[in-house]
TrEMBL record:
PROSITE patterns: UVRD_HELICASE_ATP_BIND, UVRD_HELICASE_CTER. This is DNA 3'-5' helicase. It comes from the Bacteria. The keyword rRNA processing does not apply. It comes from Ancylobacter polymorphus. Keywords: ATP-binding, DNA-binding, Helicase, Hydrolase, Isomerase, Nucleotide-binding. The keyword rRNA processing does not apply.
Amino acid sequence: MADPRNIPDGAPSDFPFDLPAASPRPGGIAARAAALARPDGAGHARGVYLDGLNPEQRAAVEATDGPVLVLAGAGTGKTRVLTTRIAHILSLGLAWPSQILAVTFTNKAAREMKERIGAMVGEEVEGMPWLGTFHSIGVRMLRRHSELVGLKSGFTILDTDDQIRLLKQLLQAEGIDEKRWPARLLANIIDGWKNRGLGPQQVPAGEGSAFANGRGGAFYAAYQARLKALNAVDFGDLLLESIRLLRENPDVLAEYHRRFRYILVDEYQDTNVAQYLWLRLLAAGSRNVCCVGDDDQSIYGWRGAEVDNILRFETDFPGATVVRLERNYRSTGHILGAAAHLIAHNAGRLGKTLFSEGESGEKVTVTGAWDSQEEARAIGEEIEQLQRQGHALTQIAILVRASFQMREFEERFVTLGLNYRVIGGPRFYERAEIRDALAYLRVIASPSDDLAFERIVNVPKRGLGDAALRQIHDHARAAQIPLIEAARELVASEELKPKVRLTLRDLVASFDRWRGQMTSLPQNELAEIVLDESGYTEMWQKDRSADAQGRLDNLKELVRSMEQFENLIGFLEHISLVMDVEGAAGGDAVNIMTLHSAKGLEFDTVFLPGWEEGVFPNQRALDEQGRAGLEEERRLAYVGLTRARRRAKVFFASNRRIHGMWQSAVPSRFLDELSEKDVEVTESRGGQGWGGGQSGRYGYGPSRFDEAQTFGSSYSTPGWQRAQNAARSNSGGGGFSGGSFSDNRPSRFAASEKARGGRVIEGELIAKSTGPASRFAIGDRVFHQKFGYGEVASVEGNKLTVQFDKAGEKKVVDSFVDAA
DNA sequence: GAGAGTCGGCTTTTT
DNA sequence: GCCGACTCTC
């Protein structure tokens, strides 16, 4: 092959793409990369970017021909390999920047990759138009060839919220009971099919009947038809329709084959079937596909990721080079040892053993606490101590399995006055006020966006309720026009009530006016005018609820963030794909986040609370996914441990409040899967030790919690507090101590019988004997205004469980019933 | 159409 | 125990 770059970008006949400025301008990325390769190039020796790579990394970078799988363990320099590989390809002149397809999962990863490549070869990275997320690249393809998949250019991208509202309408139209068959469930099922690359026609018959008595498949088809009618796609379609585009149009596929000389995929273990199919189609061209990933860090199976994709790579791409990166640059020896021992309990992995050349460092600590409050207290104290020793709070993270665990820490840190930052949670663009504001803008930008129109037609309340909306809907359906056009026609007619007619006339006129200003005003000024004139801002100003001010601030932030875009359309396109907003850096603060959102991050000190059966591994994962679920939970534990550079500190509590109920818990089996030589069992600094779990035996299974001790809601009564104080003061007797190592129970974290018995019984007795005594006793006949006559089945404080003659068993507060 | 009251659900999360 | 969705009433 001659110079592979002999098809210059922008050559009109060969590449019918609207190519960005990627031709070899003097300052372009390719020119800079090429300069790197020349001995005299800007002072760089040839291949200077290769310096400092270890032999495996270098092999992964230099294996440019054919399929390559890089198995990159945690902390082994995965991103560095990816970015260096791109720099290498560019500097050898193997491809232009626009001939490299580089895919990531998140916008954040794409951004980081751009920055790092930019730092390596020069600042200009716009030269890599095909570096992005699966979805953004899918959109790019679909926008170019929209007519080939039955869309008009300028189609809208619906997010989950829109998706569910659309499905709700479909279900309602068919008279489906939404209690039994929620739209959300259908959305999940459809997403599942799309994740697997299945269109409505390809859904296996049996599965299609899973929803609403055999109508799942039909609803899927109807939903897709609705999307087409709205000229819209959902996130799943971005891939599914791209696949269809490539499959049904060999000429288009051939063009992409010629274009993409090199394909790189990040986090390959997280790809789903659809992404895999898409990738295979594209990779069939050059066959130069390089996937980087770690099967041990696959934690997104529940949303369609197929670990199998990475496990099967060598079969899928015959002749693949496999490079293992096992040299860890992040964690100390003990942390790696503990993590490696844990993950070795998983079957079905490709098998890597991380090693480090650094020191072994501190052992991983395992600490038991009496309950989740004490767990938070102990962690708070350790953090304060680290802080006193001069450690930065930003280098400390608390990684939880589920977000309900966060609150305990937040409360504790507020009392301590310790700065913290919760990462994750509801994102900026998901907030109601932001979505409302965006809906206004969407209607302005594309009048046929019915979902957006519906969202704000009566927000703020302007008297256009259900009845009015139904009229508009009916007319729109009959005339086959968008809602806002239907509204316009109705206003011109005599159909509406006078008051409704006036309001609707004003609203339609407002939209016309705003649309007229779209070209003359910058989009942020327009947004401000729209929010003002529509009464939306005023609605929140009048609102006296606590978060109203926060919402107004968010709206301001939204308007401010619009400045940096070229126009309204550009802004809307951006936010439909990039639902995150640059996180405010904030000062020195402890990071609190879920294990899932911690993937890819690292901290000096990592606290891992809540290692209890049922919480972690999560009970539902076990119930629903069985062994596969357990293994994914274990990978999650592995991810958690390997986030730590110097200190990993695991905690478990014997009692935890879940859904408002106190439940005693068994220490997680994962604790016993940590290698003993790397672990140190410490006592909680709170001092009261822990009460232990049920049996200390490994009879794990779904029934484990059936006999779990549960306490009533009287936990905060003086009696309960006395019980806790009592527990605190006699920690010597029942507390956890190294002593339980010497008994020959299967688990070294199992409770001593003594500790367990004393605590639990005490708590139970006190909990039952306190609280406001009810006027009623078991067996009493009572009367309730709503439920009628019944018999008291149980009494918990002032709460009664009553077996009503007609209404069945209900829980009621005793002030609502009278003696019969 | 607003406000109060009731009921059910409740892992992880990106695009 | 808390939150959101829905219903009921005025």
